[in-house]
Design goal:
By secondary structure, the chain is an alpha/beta fold. The chain has helices at residues 16-23, 39-48, 62-73, 80-93, 113-126, 138-146, 158-163; strands at residues 7-12, 29-32, 53-56, 102-106, 131-134.
């Protein structure tokens, strides 16, 4: 999988576009709002950037996260999670989308329970230092960018990780089995 010279940060949450707009103009930060573009359309823009931080709101795992939440909330069609897993794997393999270095999750306490488990259980369980909660305020996200710490990267065996998602129960996501 391609790694970029910039640190790529996806800002996720309802207020992400306005928070990203508030980051525009910070030194060493390229802030890109997704707008109507698909995540794959943003990949080349992100890849060409030479800024220290590239911050955007085009989550490459959004559809997968929505499908996982729908699977466990029983609001998605049967087989929807499996289809989303295969689509995510195909996009990642073809490098139409790239996993970010970090996610900054806005206002996690305001998320529905299963969605919060996706972010702070599934994703943070796979790479704990890579999901950073923050309030929906540009200054707080700028502070989060300054405080990003090193940590393990996303699982290298993406097929195993993603195809195992149907067995990751929300209230146990991210917990180490005993």
């Amino acid at each position: 999988m391609r790694r970029l010279s910039s640190t790529v940060v996806v800002v996720a949450g309802e207020r992400a576009p306005e928070v990203i707009a508030g980051l525009d103009g910070l030194p060493n930060v390229r802030a890109i709002a997704r707008g109507e573009r698909a995540p794959a359309d943003l990949t080349e823009v992100v890849a060409r950037s030479s800024a220290t931080y590239v911050v955007h709101d085009a989550d490459p795992l959004r559809d997968l996260g929505d499908a996982w939440v729908g699977y466990f909330d029983q609001t998605a069609p049967v087989g929807g999670l499996e289809v989303a897993i295969e689509a995510a794997l195909a996009d990642l393999r073809a490098e139409r989308v790239l996993l970010p270095d970090y996610y900054v999750l806005l206002d996690p306490d305001e998320l529905p329970e299963t969605q919060r488990h996706w972010w702070l259980g599934v994703l943070a369980g796979a790479a704990p230092a890579r999901v950073v909660p923050a309030p929906s305020v540009p200054a707080a996200v700028a502070d989060a960018l300054r405080g990003l710490g090193a940590g393990r990267w996303w699982p290298t065996a993406l097929d195993d990780w993603l195809r195992g998602l149907p067995r990751v129960v929300p209230d146990q996501a991210g917990l180490t089995p005993t």
